[in-house]
Design brief:
Mean pLDDT: 88
Helix content: over 70%
Order of helices and strands: HHHHH
Distance between the termini: 34 Å
Largest sheet: none
Low-confidence stretches: none
Number of helices: 5
Length: 106
Amino acid sequence: MPALLWAACLTSCGLALGVHARSQGQLAAASDIGALTITCLSGFLVPLAVLPHWLSAVAPATPGHWALHGFQATVTSDTRAYAHSTAVIAAITAAARLVSRRRVRR
């Protein structure tokens, strides 16, 4: 389940980014920079305990952080952490879909 929700979140965020890009080059640059930033800030590449404090404080603002927590909660069978991360990722997915839907209607 976390993998499907994470895929839906990435797709929705990509769609929201795509409807705001003016060209394919702008979309490619924004998606590459965004993906690298989210990956670095979320704790996927480096554990948050190793990162500076200000970076670990920013991590919960990224969807990747919550996906990582969801995957870890699945492995450790922590149902409360799993439910929380799933709810946050679902909210981010819904917000991204709302942003893209509003942009498409204009």
